[in-house]
Every structure is written in C-alpha cells, then in structure tokens.
Specification:
The complex is a heterodimer. By secondary structure, chain A is α+β, with helices and mostly antiparallel strands. In chain A, helix 8 packs parallel to helix 9, helix 13 runs parallel beside helix 14 and helix 16 packs across helix 17. Chain B is of the alpha+beta class. Helix content of chain B is 43%, strand content 37%. Chain B contains five helices and seven strands; from the N terminus they run βααββββββααα. A seven-stranded antiparallel sheet of chain B has the order 1-7-6-5-4-3-2, covered by helices on one side. In chain B, helix 1 crosses helix 3 and helix 3 packs across helix 4. Chain B starts with a strand and ends with a helix. The chains are: A alpha+beta, B alpha+beta. Chains A and B meet through loops of A and strand 6, strand 7 and helix 3 of B.
Amino acid sequence: MAQKYVGQRLTRTEDPRLLTGQAMFVDDVQIPGMLHAAFLRSEYTHARLKRIDVSAARNRPGVVAVYTAADMGDTWRPGPPLVSPPPTIKDIVFHSRTQVPLVKDKVRLAGEPLAVVIAESRYIAEDALDDIVVELDPLEAVVDLEKALEPDAPRVHDDLDSNLACHLIQKKGDYAAAREKADLVIKRRIVIDRGTAAAMENRGIVVYWDAKSQQLTVWDTTQAPIPIRNGLAGMFGLSPSQVRVIAPFVGGGFGPKIMMFYPEEMVLTWATLQLGRPIKWIEDRRENFYATNQERGQVHYAELALTRDGHILGLRDDFIHDTGAYDPYGLTVPINTQCHAMGPYRIPNYYSDLKVVFTNRPIVSPLRGAGRPQGVYVIERLLDIAAKELGMDPVEIRKRNLLPPDVFPYDNQIIDQAFVPLVYDSGNYLPILEKAAEMIGYEKFVKEEQPRLRAEGRHVGIGIVCFIETTGIGPYEGARVTVEPSGKISVATGVGTQGQGHFTSFAQIAADQLGVNPRDVNVVTGDTSQFHWGTGTFASRGAVVAGNAIHAAASTVRAKVLKLASKVLETPEEELELADGMVRVADIPEKCISLGELAVLANPLRGAVEPGTEPGLEATAYFGPKYGATASGAHAMILEVDPETMMVEIKRYILVEDCGTVINPLIVEGQLHGGVALGIANSYYEQLMYDENGQLLNASFADYLVPTASEVPRVEITHLETRSPLNPLGNKGVGEGGCIPVPCLFAQALEDALADYGIEILETPLSPNKLFDLLSGKRNK
Amino acid sequence: MKVEGEYIFNGPRAEVWDLVRDPEVLATALPGTKSLNQISANQYEGEMNVRVGPVAGVFAGRVVVSDEVCPESYTLTVEGKGAPGFAKGTGRVHLIAQDDGTTLMKYEGEVQIGGKIASVGQRLLDTVSKSMIRQGLEALNKALEARVARSKGQEVECQPPSEAEFAAAVAKDMAGQLLSSSWVLWIALAVVVIIVAAIWLSRGGG
C-alpha cells in the first residue's frame, strides 16, 4: 500500500530556497535597460488639485518621463469595480466609486498619487519628485465614521448626496418580537479600529512591454495574477495571451495584495506601453502605510436578547463600516462581519443593519480576517457581558448556545460574501470548547489558581471564546497535473503564493494520487503562462479550492497512468498499485514500470494513436464548491497584567481548531501561529492613529507597534477534524482562523484579570495608554 | 497641535513690537533662512533650507498678519510646505507691558501638520516645538537687549545662533525629556530642523 502524505508533518519544500536567498521576489527582477518609477503622493487627505507643473522634473538629467492624469488622455479612467454587491440581496443601496490611476481633480486620501516620474534610477526619480510644483486647495476631511453621515459633513465624492456608500439590511426571523420576550437585553457601542497588514515585503511591480514580441510581462506582488492579467489586457486593448503576469515569491499577502487595480498597476502598465522599456517600482515602507489598503474600522451598536437561563433569543447589530475613499472591493468585508456575528451559536432572530461610509482614509479591502474578527468580537463581547449580568460562567453561557452536531448543513438564512446563502456545511462545536477548557485547565484555574494568585495581589485572568470561519468559497480554481518523462510530477495552478506553504501542501495532495514522494512534485503557482484560469488567493480558500482541483486533476492522471500501465504490464487495473514512482502489479512487485517510462510511452513520436486519445499523462481539472466550508475553533488564554505599568503578559495560549482534513499539521500550525500574532497585534499593539484631519500619525515601525517574539506567546494547538462534505478532500480553510477570535479573547481575559476594577472593554485595539485611561476612569468614580 | 505659552522680553513693548515685525531680525533669530520678504504691509513670504540627516528640502511659506492692534496683539495665519510636509496654523499673540519695563508675550494657536513631519515625527512634536519656541524667543530677546543697549549708546555684541547651535540646543532639551538613545537624538535632530521652519514661519510675521 502506498504511503499517504496528506496528514503528515512534512517540512516545507520551498524553505531551503527561501532560507538561502535563492527565491525570486519582484525586486530581484533585473532587466537590461530597466527604468525606475517614483510616485508623487498627496500629503493632504482631501484637497482640490488646482495646478500641477512637471516641466522642471522632466528637464532633470536622467528623467525619462513624467506623467500626470492629463497625459493619460482617454486611457485615464477609474479602476473597474473588483467585487460587486451581492445581486441576490434586495433593496440594497450601493454607490460604486473606484480608485483612479492618478488624481485628476480631487485628492481623496493622503498618499493618492498625483504624478509618476520614470527615470534611470530610483534616486533620480525621487529627486525629480521635488521638482514638481503642485497647488492643492485643502478641504475639510471626513475622518470619523459616525460624523461622516451627519448632514453637514463634507463629502468625499461630490456627486453623491452624502458619504453613504451602502445601506444593507440582512435579517433572519423577527428580532423585534424576540426582544419583547427577552428577560435580558444587552446593548453596547463597540468600536473596532484600523490596522495595516505590515507584510514583510511591500508591494512591487515590474512591467515590460516588448514591442517586437508584442508581449507585456508583469511581475507583481499580487495575490490574484490571473484577474490582473485579464484586467490589464482589457484595460489596454491587448489579448490576454499577450499578457503574462507572474506573482513570484511574495513576502506576505494578508489580503491587501488581492486588491486590484492599485493605481501603480494601471499607471506603470500604461507607462511601459508608452516607453517600450521595462520599469520597476518597489513600494517603500512609508508609502505602504498610505498607499496599500487597510482594514477593520467599524462602529457597532449591538444588542443581544436573552432568556434568564442564558439562551439567546436574538441579536441586533446596527453598524457603520469605513470603506475609505473608494469601495472597489464592494461589501466583502462588512458582509463577512454580518456573517460572523452569529458565530457557532443558535441565534433564531437576527437583524443586521449595515451602513458603509466613504472617508478620506486609505481604501479598505480584506486584511486577514476580513471583517470576521469584528463580527466575532461583537457576539463574544455581548455574551461575556450577558454572562456577568446573569451571574453565569462564560464557558457555560457558550455551551448553552452552541449549535448541536445534528443541525448541519445549517442555513443561517442570510447571504454571504460569495453571494450564496450562509450555510455552515458541517461542525461539531461542543467538543472544541470542552477541549480548549480542558487544555487550559479552566476549572482548576478559576477555582484554585486564580484565587491564590489574587490573594498574592496579582492580576491574572482567563478567557475562552468560540468562533467560526467561513472559508474556501468559490467560484473555482483549476490545476494541471503532468507526469514528466523524468518521472517527476509537475503541478500548475493559478492561485498565487505569499508564504502559505502551497508548494508542500499541494505536492502532498498530488503525491497521494500518483504514488510519488512530494519532494518529486514541482508546484508552480501564480504564473499566468503556466496556468491561466482561476481567481486568486483569498478567503482562506487556496488549500480547499485549488487543493481539490489538484486532487481532481491528479486523480484523472492516476486513471490515465493505470490505463496505460495495464496495457503495458498486461494486468487488469485493479491489480496495479502506484508507489515510489512506479506502477507495480500488487502481487508481483518485480513486474513494474516507472511513471517516467509511462510518460514517454504516452507521448509517442511515431505510430498511430487511437482516436480520442490525448498525448501524455496529463490532466486539467477544476473545482468549485456550492458554498464555502465553515471551519471552527475555540481559543483560550491566561494573562497577567500589571495595573501600574499596564504591561500585559500572556502566560498560556490554547488553540483548538477544526479545519476538517488537515493536509499538513506543521503548515496549519504555522498559519495559526502567524494568525495569533496578528490577533495579538489587533488586541493591544497595532492601531493606525489618524488625527482629526486624517493625517496618519504613526507611519513607521518606530510608532506602529508590530508585536515581536516577546509579546507573542507559545501557542498550544489541538486539531479536531470534522470533514467538509463539500469537497473530496474534506478540508476547510485555516489561513485566517488564528487571528479572528484573539481581540475578544484578550478583552475577556483582561477584564477577568482586572475584575476588582469592574471595567468593560468595548474597543479594540486597546493599548497600555487606553487601558490606563479605562482604569483611571474607574478609579475616579 | 495646540501651541501656547508665555515669554518675558527684557525691553519695552514698543521695542518688542518693532522687533517681531522686522523680517531681518527674525531671519537671523532662526538660522537656515534663505529669504524672508515682506510682500505687503501684512504679508511675508520666505524660504528656508532644511537639511539634517535623511530629511532635506526647502520649506516655503507665507505668513499673514491680521487683527493687528498695535502694539498689543495680532493674529498670525501661517502656511508652509516643502519636502518634509506641510504646516498650517493660526495663532494669536498678545504683548503686555509690565510694570518693571519688561514685556510679557502670550501666545496661543492651533497648528495642523501633515506629511512626513506628522507621520514620522509625531511623538516628538510637542516637546520639540516647545523647545524650539523657547530657543527662538531667547534669540529674539538677545537681539532686543542689544537694541535697547544700542539705543542707550552702549555697544553689545549680539551673535545670532548658528543652525547647528540651534539644533543642538533643542536636542539637548529633548534629551532631558526623552530616552537619550542615539537613535532618538538622531530623529530629534531631524525633526528639530523641520520644526524650526514651522515655528519660524509662525513667528515670521510677528
């Protein structure tokens, strides 16, 4: 029997290249005659462009071209909307306003590009930026989410009546009636603020229009190379076959790199078409704080109606979501919030009123978690407060409301980000919560340790929360699997890779079908010349959607291998087995043929081939799920806080995750560790601070605090497996799960640690300063 | 950012008034000045070189003096911008004659700052601006004392501070309040010179 690789803790195939500096990133691309670009960006958040004079910059030696919106002529137009609102939701108000390549008349966010300089070197290009004379007439900025909707607020888009970008109500049951019957109604205002992805690698683009071959090549740190190719081809009147987009190794995507089209992608492609020369632009860190999309800003007015014994009757959530200056990404993020506020709980009545507002801040599109942490924060915080009001244990109130295992598939009766009904495919939530409680020693801590430590004057607290994560949505991905004459396997898929371990996980899937070692499977991702159908890496879907496409393609190749081998070995297919790169007769192992030899036989140079036969041992297959697979989990932590310094130490961190079939536990755990680090960032460290004029006050890593190894604890992980019935591998996504429940968990544990102060935490990220204010307020009372 | 404070000048109010409305004196009180021109009775325009460490560029600005009640008070509206960012502010300055022949200056204003100066220098702005104002006012006071002495027939040497001396003094002030790591000082130095421009502009019309 062949060895199974899915489920094994295989070290990552790509790591030797990455660790020894042999992996290619966009900035490694060097082409003779390559030019360099620098963008002049507005320092004002909101201003009218009166005049721009680039003549001096054009005259600087070494400058090849300087372009403004006017130079683009008819090709200047706002980017196409990337995601439209769900067409299946009725009575939706949605105003689509998309980003522009270069500012023509009005600046809507600080960092918006006004001009681009193309020069012999980046140094010259940057110097030439200072030669450009710009007259901007500053306007009052829209910064505060709630004030944005006031009637006298300045407008981000002059042609709209207000800053309202969308109004959407989703409901299930009858919340108002449920509220009537409630013994307890908890109502709170909850504020969640913005952060940035802070990927290790900033964005980068190299574009090259070769007029002789009539080929456009684009190296891009994008998470969606195929849509970028299709979009650029459409925008500039090229055939998609003339455009090759390569997303090589990318130093972290985390969502913002799924955005398209960033102004730089549009402008630089246009520029290389003008100049016929390769152009490189690599975003610097400061630019990244302004010009790369961000996420999380929301204000919620949420209420939870319960019975006396802690059963949820209904949830109402009226919330405002900040989309920034434009909304090219539609409603993905706030709909995710709507779809995660019910969590793993039975909530019979739900009313969610969403208002999306335009503000003069960077564009919002998904950032790892993508609206999910906000929804989870709302329900988990309300449950904690309800438990306190009812004198109930926080674990107990959750147990009472968890969906039982016999309700799946469970239809939540609202529409999700993929425009399909929010249906939880499978799940078994109670064992997850019980396992987390057991691992952290909940009972013992609460009954014995905490009282002892409190008696010593120490402020230690425990938290435990549950969540679901919708993952693996459609529409589809595809893959081509080929047995090469060497006997090695090549796999090509369209999704891009930004560190998820695709080269290993995907190889494990193909290896199991073809009886080879995963090290002999060469995976190519993110190069449209290798595979050009697909959508991209987002929504924790790579392993689910591309993974199952690879599984399907590899199964088809396996069938071809068996068919040919059966002929060659003169043995029925049922008696053959694939292992160690060979096809053997099960009972007579010495009667065998290698995959490589079969590949050669499958591609003959002479002789007749039977009609309907395809050459080679190759297959292409696609996978598209009916709806997303819903993963789940519970996190628990014990923390200690010093109420003098406000310094927090996380003593233990427990994570129980159910993402269905685990392809590679090592990789899944790596994803979870990274997710938890981001979650901790979103709890206490990383917050983008804007002043009342929309000026970003902490656009450097000196002031924007990314947690380090000393703030991120060791994470103890247990996997539980509830297979997804939606795909043959039975897997669910896990890329975002690690970060989603951390802020509400942190808040619960911190409140518990500071129980003697009686504080209530209703915002995230918190910070030592904010905690100090919170405690001071309590002290003053 | 709010800016407010007081300072006592060792001279009579009329002299202080003349001083703060004299572009040449102001230009020497804050080094790095390329030009400071009075373009009308109540408007000044100027340029200043800024070059310390990684921050370099010309800060160009305009100051408008309004609501002038000679020699008691005036309002300054300042707009300046350059590679390091931009500043825009309004402030009210009061000069109060004291019984002992000195003059008390009270000032308060609101400054909006944007660009690199805001995003990178934010947490140092408050401390630095206070120090910068103190330094600048002290330099002006020295000029005033020299003027007063000259009017009495005495010759007093008044050497305006050099750009480097100025920055060093501010950095010293900051070191007293902040971590004295070389890194912080380096940033501080960079910010100092940016602020010089902003503050200079805000006082340029005075």
